Amino acid sequence: MIQLFKMAFRDLGRNRRRSFFSALALAIVLALLLLMAGVIAGELRQSMDSSIRLQSGHLQVRAKTYDENKTSLAWEDLVDNPGQVTAQIASLAPVQVATPRLYASGIVATGDNSLGVRVIGIDPSSPANAPFQDGMLSGEFLKADDTQGILVGKPLADKLGLNTGDRVNLLVNTSNGDVDQQPFFIRGIYTTHTPGFDQSAVFMPLAKAQAITQTQNHATLVFVLLKDRDQTGAVANALSTTQYQVVTWEQTNTLLLQFNQFSRDYMALIYLIFLGIAATVIINTLIMSVFERTREIGILTAIGMRSNSIMGMFLAESSLLGAGGILMGLVLGAIGISLFNINGFSVADFGVTGIALGDRIFAYVVPSDVITLTILSFVIALLAGLYPAILAARMEPVEALRGGKK
Q1: What's the pLDDT score for residue 406?
Q2: Are 404 and 291 in contact (CB under 8 A)?
Q3: What percent of the chain is predicted at pLDDT more than 90?
Q4: Which residues, 6 or more positions from 242, have their beta carbon under 8 angstroms from its beta carbon?
Q5: pTM of the model
Q6: pLDDT in tens, 192-204
Q7: Where are the chain's structural domains?
């Protein structure tokens, strides 16, 4: 076996330029696939993390009859006495933070301009508001007793031309089906670097949200973040009651999880197409080598080398090309991902909605993806040498000694 690899290495060295570019073709393909896999993984990871931090939490405790697609404010669809429920949940050891939130549909109007928004009533003192507090661009964060202030996202402020201190009219649906309109002042402008969320979310203190929507001492849900996401199932079981429904982050992010599975299936097809192109280059290289070395193959056969040894020699050449290409590909892939992550890829102007996609995508290296692509690349390179190896092994000694001519 060692002798076959020595011969294969010597044979590849006969035409170093051709061998190098064959391995380089595989390297470029592998580097591109690593970058693509990293970008997809980074986008999905970022979207899931943002969705959990901003919208879904690890768990939500809601009324049994609540339908998030309708944003109902009927008292029977809300959590009664949310402060007590929140305190009970927060007492569990795996829980990092629990806080009540109230959601309502509304319209922000200023002058002749107006936009539909989602009004979110929050407890300003809760640590769950860290993404909004840390993202304050101007003004100040809300206070619990503020009855006239709201926070708006930067995309919404830009669309309506709003600045801190400006006065706007806010129309909000109420629990009895009416619409209440009140003036508010922009206390601050925030960004979570998630345009799809920032352009529609308007925050106000929970007490004021309950007053304007006429949902006194009620909340839409209790938003729960855990210390360890892997404990979601255990905590959900512990919180299970007949009065409320406990919804996990997997259930609230179904669309994102489905997209994750679809992207993986799609990427598997892309892997095979790109690696198939690289395999074609290796096949052509080895076929050319077979025809160039026809007489040599005939001599080796004549002195007793068996056909399976000849096959092994060409398979050794393809494996060496594959190994060289993989090593170069890993290096090129690492360089490419590092350069990509310097600034990332801006998607702020793409208008993506439905998922919590950040304004920039950064690649994230998943070890399992690197291992899978490395193994797949080597297998493809090895299979690429199979046809040339069979072609060489089936040559008749006499014809080979004549240079393949009858």
Answers
A1: 44
A2: yes
A3: 48
A4: none
A5: 0.77
A6: 988 888 989 999 9
A7: 2-51+256-401, 65-242
